[in-house]
Amino acid sequence: MISPVDQRTWLVSESPFNPFKLHHTETIFTVGNGFMGVRGTFEEGYSGDLATTLAHGIFNHAEGDLVPDIVNLPNPLPVQVLVDGEAFHMTTGKVLGFRRTLDLKRAALTREVLWRTSKGVVVKLTFERFASLTNEHLLVQRVRVRALLGSPQITIRSSVDANVTNLGVQHLADLHTSVSGAEILVTARTNQSNYGIAVCAAHSLSIESAVQSEAERVSYTFALPQENEVGLTKISAIYTTRQGDQPAHMAQEATRAALKKGYETLFAAHCAAWEQYWHTSDVQIEGDELAQRAVRFTTYHVLIAAPRHDERVSIGAKTLSGLGYKGHVFWDTELFMLPMLTVTQPKLARNLLMYRYHNLQGARNKARANGYEGAMFPWESTDTGEETTPQWSHPQPDGTRIRIWTGDNEQHISTDIAYAVLQYWQWTGDDEFFVKHGAEIVLDTAVFWGSRAEYNAERDRYELSMQIGPDEYHENVNNSAFTNSMVRWHLQQALAARNWLLTHHREAGEALLARLNITEERCAKWSDIAAKIYIPRDPETGVLEQFDGFFQLERLDLTHWQPRVTNMDWILGHERAQRTMVIKQADIVMLMALLGDQFGSPEVQQSNWDFYYPIVDHGSSLSPSTHAWVAARLGLLEDAYKLFMYAANIDLEDLKGNVRDGIHAAACGGVWQAVAFGFVGLSLDERGELQIKPNLPPHWRSVTLRAYHRGQLKTIRLTAEN
């Protein structure tokens, strides 16, 4: 029996049915397991719904598209129930009751509907689904029908919908559907990348009833006496040629084996596996049930997206919950999602870092193409590791195109990835990973920066021109304080990593340094850059100037621009926003979060906060959580809590108005950081030891979380009293 508190903090429910919120609820009710993500569309289908089934690593560059897109796979969900020949649909007949619930603890979605037909028969329909955590290729469904008034004839039809696109763009070719007995098999291939895809669905009914095999579906018809219930179990398996050269055979074998186990056995194993993940990743908050549920919701969405068994894929900005950003991987993964996994699920964090390692060649290709050395990671990447940011937009209504500069000049991503590698190494003590893989990332991206930094002989300093920092409202700026500061930090860390390798793993270190051509001369240049790189700053206040000329921009009082949900760059227009002192998201504040006390004294940190907080638009969903983290560290608890709750509810309440495109994954990871690194004050000191500097919201009675530190799982519990 679920306790009332658990009901309020582990369950996300929808009641009554609201057809105007289809796209929002489809996203937040996504189920997944690190291999697949299935949006929360309804089994019977509705006009305008965005039925989407995604699997990590399956991208395709369709003719006419600017860049590759993650591929919407054949939809395994469709099940149609007919009562005395009348098709169940929540827009016909009469819905007497509706409740849909996502159980975060068990990663399972349930819908219960009381429905009266036009002839007065009343049935209760229960739809259940989960993406198995014990066999990541399986989507398991159960549909139960109970006759409450009347003894109707029931027909259940099941299919796999192969008529799917990415919002009208066709990525699949050679589609073929076959039905044999109670089994449906759909095969296809992507029309450019040539991935083979198979979706197999097998069925069993809880009573004896002949299955009818039709062209593209199976069906069962039977009489259902009043107060009786019948259930259909549907198990679908998804395989691609990324797993083997015979995906159809693998999918058929998996569904047949799973069907023999049955729904209850599969679900019990799935729940047991999830219990292990929640044991280490759950954050327990006493005294704030709204915050508790929101933190579990955001944690859930990171966990269902993190690949368990594949180190050649990563998490896109919208996870596997929608088609936003075409499934591309950004800095969101390394700086917002990875920290939670590094501390609570280090094996999953390692997988994500290995994606970057395996794609180093793509980063080297980009550096060479731009005239640099080393590894210059792409701003957006997919399965190949090559740069996949479009250079131009689609034509605007007037026929013009907008130049997209992020792929060229948002270069801080190379240091963001190095930061994540070093953070993982420091928390886990995984020397094997660092020696074999991580050090190469850190060092070769440092090689890139060594070739990228521009020496100003007149002023005897190094500079970086044509940059885009985290604040994307201001493009192609010179001397981004964020980028320049992180490059200085990066080069210092690279030199320390080199020395550590030569001290502790000399043979492997010398081989790596020779392969990357990291000579004494190159290291001397890194030291010189780190010592002389220009960081624009007001010498009197200690406030960093976000970039050259930022302090001369037009200032707006954003308090006069409330309430609004539209971003300021849309309101002002692109050109005006460039000339205005309004920033998209945490930029200098992001630097404060990443560098901690290395940023400066508490007084300097406060001065920078006081300057930049009033001018941030929070035009990106990842901004509020970063501000919450820093505000908590500064003891600004009222602001910290307000920003934290905004970040935690961005998706649950659709605060940005665009959840239809998918979950804001960076915001989800950022919420955990706001709690762990902000309110709890969890960090590592200079010796790599755990330290805690808590600043809890005053109404929180306690916070409990777990953290892996150098292989040991530690439980941290803070109470209001201590």
From TrEMBL:
Record GO biological process: carbohydrate metabolic process
Protein name: Glycoside hydrolase family 65 protein
Domain Glycoside hydrolase family 65 N-terminal: 14-242
Ranges where the Glycoside hydrolase family 65 central catalytic domain occurs: 296-673
Secretion signal, residue range per the UniProt entry: none
Active-site annotation: 472
Bilayer-spanning residue ranges: none
UniProt entry keywords in alphabetical sequence: Glycosyltransferase, Hydrolase, Transferase
Keyword Glycosyltransferase: yes
The family this protein is said to belong to: Belongs to the glycosyl hydrolase 65 family.
GO molecular function, one term: carbohydrate binding
InterPro entries: 6-hairpin_glycosidase_sf, 6hp_glycosidase-like_sf, Gal_mutarotase_sf_dom, GH65_N, Glyco_hydro_65_M, Glyco_hydro_65_N, Malt_Pase/Glycosyl_Hdrlase
Binding-site residues, substrate: 331-332, 584-585
